[in-house]
Amino acid sequence: MDREKIRLSFLKSALTLDNTFIDMEGVKQWLNKQQEEVSVKVDKIRFSDMDQWFFDLTDGNLRHKSGQFFSIDGLHVKTNWGLVKEWSQPIINQPEIGFLGIITREIDGILYFLMQAKIEPGNINHVQLSPTLQATKSNYTRVHQGRKPLYLDYFLSRDRHRVLVDQLQSEQGGRFYKKRNRNIIIRVEGDDDVPVYENFAWLTLGQIKKLMQIDNTVNMDTRTVISAIPYGDAPPGTGGSLDLPKVSPTAPGEFKKGMLASTLISGKGLFDFDEILSWLADLKTKYELHVEKIPLKNVKNWVITDQQIHHEDNKYFRILPVSVEIDNREVTRWTQPLLEPAQEGLSAFIVKKIDDVYHFLVQAKVECGNLDILELAPTVQCLTGNYRDTKTGTLPFLDEVLNVEPGRVRFDTLQSEEGGRFFREQNRNMLIEAGDNFNETLPENYIWMTLAQLNTFLKFNNYLNIQSRSLLSAIDFI
Amino acid sequence: MDREKIRLSFLKSALTLDNTFIDMEGVKQWLNKQQEEVSVKVDKIRFSDMDQWFFDLTDGNLRHKSGQFFSIDGLHVKTNWGLVKEWSQPIINQPEIGFLGIITREIDGILYFLMQAKIEPGNINHVQLSPTLQATKSNYTRVHQGRKPLYLDYFLSRDRHRVLVDQLQSEQGGRFYKKRNRNIIIRVEGDDDVPVYENFAWLTLGQIKKLMQIDNTVNMDTRTVISAIPYGDAPPGTGGSLDLPKVSPTAPGEFKKGMLASTLISGKGLFDFDEILSWLADLKTKYELHVEKIPLKNVKNWVITDQQIHHEDNKYFRILPVSVEIDNREVTRWTQPLLEPAQEGLSAFIVKKIDDVYHFLVQAKVECGNLDILELAPTVQCLTGNYRDTKTGTLPFLDEVLNVEPGRVRFDTLQSEEGGRFFREQNRNMLIEAGDNFNETLPENYIWMTLAQLNTFLKFNNYLNIQSRSLLSAIDFI
Question: Which residue in A192, B120, B240, B248 has the most C-beta neighbors within 10 A?
Fold first, then answer.
């Protein structure tokens, strides 16, 4: 397969807002209409009133009677990383790899993405823009009552289609136990006339990226899949044989709000890739992470009542039993646990031009659910409550992010976490350009990387964490 | 750092047998002399007679009183891979990342490797060629009685040296629980006059590779470090500005016993790298590996006596308590457990020229101690006892390997496993060139890859298993 051609077709779609089917206003109206037509009722209930969910007497873990979906287990953690060396906590355990898949199709020379307006109970605004397919392994292997997820067959019979992106990517390491999803983008070839079901629409990548600049509009699953897209390094707007659309991209080297065209420049990084691998090998050798699954009932400093599972100081998050009623012509009801964070969070990359190439200040971070000790995280990643408590400057670069001059903010949007597991969680996502006088000595677990280097890590499993991927997905070229 | 220059300096050393300090005859005599001068006595004893090692009453696990070194734990395994879906077994647990490090130095334009003639109790022939440094984390962080490993400081104060290779690589997934070592090669710069202690010598990479063609001479630790070396793709022998030595390499495209010059050719693979990643994502999604550490005493079908821990059918391996006495001017004595395999094993890559580029037939294989479900393994990897029992043809490509015409064998040597943990274990390592009529349909977990593609996977953690790395290290260019 000609990968360079694929990369350029992604780039071309990212530079396109003109959509044969629906323009930006139309997309927003379509999403609003979906919001209005649906009624979602989420009520906090008691664990004892849950249907099918129960605390297993043997270990106190919260699980579904079918053995499917997920369970809330306990985790005991020992590490030589950070200030707290040992703790236990509840953790979401879902030991299957699910599909997050997008179908694309070239129409009139532009790559279109088949996106879904999807309701999730935990979403602040109910409906968000989702991939074509979100399916757990239970969904697609042990299909009940013939209710197969829409478009599933396109991803199972991949021989007929081109696989453009196909990677296993991690979920939140602080909440999930080694959870991963398969992020996959396929391109349907030729005459295959993909049906467009209700709540689905063909969008350009440029439209999706513009929608990311509106709070809580593009869901986390879409963002992680989009983050994996590689782009050709042809200067945008030059077009040439690929007939790139005549938009007026930011000139390379410039940087506007929400725009980062010049990161496309394929330039030499401050460190070469082998040096970065060595930095990472050194940290993975130095820092240890020993985790052990323990019964939920044995988790220390956490309280289990009939209403919630919470930390005794109400920090971090709590697990809530809820009943969900979705009224969308038909009425669907179920109960499930949702995780509610104690505060909003902040994810921010500091970006800086070094020798005319944009570099990202990347943090290597240990989180208890990580498969491989540490993953590459944004410059700052924290719960806001945490940094309000500990204004002692212990969190590197937090001051730079919080006190940034407005002129240096390139992206600043609230983004939702996955509404199937998290209750109304939104995190502030920021891209910030450092000034010329930003010349900090980096702590040992920080390093400058180019976008191309981050993209290479993205190809391999469990290098970039979901917070950093969410930020990379927001990079916009027009 | 100029990586291409480094790759070519590795290649140049691999093409060099002329050593200013010691020629091939000299190396063999030196190793023989080390063998003769040492007396190693390994006696099978009883667990109850071990010093410092004990079965912990709480879980029956076998461990050292210091809490250091390693322990023998139990593992319970569930998987949807292979014929046996559920079992438990003893496993070596050593949750630290150790150093396997080689110091190199350029002398008269040739890169020399500082190698050690090292005694290990489990070695068949006692002394084998080892890296400059083999050190567990306990060795280098909690140093006892001032006995710091030789050359350790070169690897800790890396700022003064060039890091040429630095990767975390896995150990045997069937025996170790997620064990890894840090494989590192540094180059000492300029005037730093590295002392050469007793039992150490400077060798060229060409010499090391030639020694690999003698049974049980180059230890596993050396082989895994060497396997990580990338080579420049300049046609060997052309020299040019890099002044490559005037050896007469195998012509590109040819293939002699122990020689594989043409794999250097940087040609297009049958599959591109993204296709291989997609193949791997598909398998990792399909196959599940659920492991749980359990008390050793609860491992089913295994018997613990005072003499050994063994499978009730005497299959797989057994754990033996031994006393070791090494007399090498001073006498050193200790006791430890060693793992003795039930039979010799076989590791073989089938190699085939496809469109004039050599491709390796790579197997994705689940092993219970793997960090990430499956790793890339040789075409055939098994215990010989296993295939003698099950001559039903269930093991793919075994017949091709066992019935190969002698003219197609490119490498065939017995190689030892790590003598610090394994008792006289040797495995047959083979590289076999498939005939033109070899046109098998591949099982879903097999794929053809070029050497360049394998080298790329090698840079990232936990992709190539130790058996495939051992075979790659044997590839010789002269």
Answer: B120
